[in-house]
Design goal:
Shape: elongated
Strand content: under 5%
Mean pLDDT: 81
Oligomer: single chain
Distance between the termini: 83 Å
Radius of gyration: 28 Å
Order of helices and strands: HHH
Number of helices: 3
Helix content: 55-70%
């Protein structure tokens, strides 16, 4: 009779567990980035320059 066994890979057993899943870490980084650029985005939506408004109107009339 043949005897078989499965060896444990020590690298797999001794790795520390991650505190957060990778998806949560990416979402957190995205939110940090968005929070960082939010003031600039708010300024753009509230105070477009006259030049920007003219370009939009010219483009809409061209179609």
């Amino acid at each position: 009779m043949m005897e078989t066994f499965t060896s444990l890979n020590r690298l797999n057993c001794t790795q520390p567990k991650q505190e957060k899943p990778a998806v949560d870490a990416v979402i957190e980084l995205d939110m940090m980035f968005y929070d960082h650029i939010r003031p600039q985005l708010d300024r753009l939506t509230r105070n477009p320059s006259d030049e920007t408004i003219e370009k939009i109107l010219a483009y809409s009339r061209a179609k």
